[in-house]
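Worked Example 4.2. Consider the chain below.
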Amino acid sequence: NSWQETFQTDSKSNVEKHMKAHNMHCKWHDDGALTDWTVLPVMHKYRGMQQATTVGEWLWFTVPHANNNTFMKSNPYWADSDIPDHLYPQHTYYGDGTVIEQDVLQHIRDVIWQVAVGFQLQKGDLLVLNNIYRQHARLSFTGKRMLAVALAMQDQNYPEDN
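Applying the procedure from the previous section yields the following structure tokens:
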């Protein structure tokens, strides 16, 4: 996708305003391309239902292992690509901009697989999950499938979190 398709505008100024409003950074390249990035905290204070015992608990809320270009390079689509690491559609660094070591990424991947729970949806199944409290993913499948997805946003402006 081009940045014009992604942001549904031809205005660089509108893109920059959007980025600033969402605490994102961007850089325009000489060829008109756009690189954007966001520095996010690794932990997120969970604000679930008040009945939950986990309200206020700090949670790991990041996916450096899946958004890192090493994950993309393992996909056959990108296997023979000669793109610099920082220009992949997704890439992750530590918050200070340094490279995340491969052994750290692999450790994260290993732990996620160790605690993963898998199941196969059947026709008519309904799955409801809290996207903040549970990381989720999909494995490959065969045949036809139709999924209906709904997302809800949570207000994240809590002064005590700052």
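The first helix runs from residue 3 to 7. The chain has a mean pLDDT of 82. Compare this with Example 4.1 before moving on.
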